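Researcher: First entry.
Model:
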Amino acid sequence: MEIEGYEINDLFNSEDLESVGRKIDFERLLTTLSERDRKIAVLYAFGHTQAEIGAIVGLSQRHIGRVLEKMSKRLE
């Protein structure tokens, strides 16, 4: 799966069963998100800071933090 030029497979080790499970969970989460939130999740997963993500998507760092917090709660 590719989002905004980022290949999700690059985040996970396809030879490690636990990693494959995390990939499946992450892809499921992405399907439940809006396009904007999906972009935020992927940018964060690839190591961008909240400030960088905010600059890319046009939101404040604080707003990005709230979006990521909501996503984290969904995964619990």
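Researcher: Second entry.
Model:
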Amino acid sequence: MKKLTYILPVLILAISSCSTAQKASEVQSIKISVAPYIKMTCKELSTEQASLINKAQSLGAQVDSEQQSDKNKELVAWILFAPAAFFMDGNAESASNLASIKGQLDAVGDAMKVNNCVN
């Protein structure tokens, strides 16, 4: 029984540490220049913001789905064939796209402030 109390935390740590997949809420925005958005009117900025919000929500759902799938694959890999857990794909591409969209949203928000647009 004592061995189980030592082995269990090690197994949990090993299982939780291999996947590089992130949740959408963990993805940080990438800094995007506000310059292209400054020239836009408030109406154009509002339309762009709505479009980016839709993209961010869609990509966020995709990132979360890929993260959950990766965690499930990792668990199965650890149970069936532990070395396979070290070769998990993660969701870096989707997370990168989401980070870019989040950065664009920040830039649009900054442009709206500069142009004195009411949200």
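Model: Note on the second entry: The mean pLDDT is 77.
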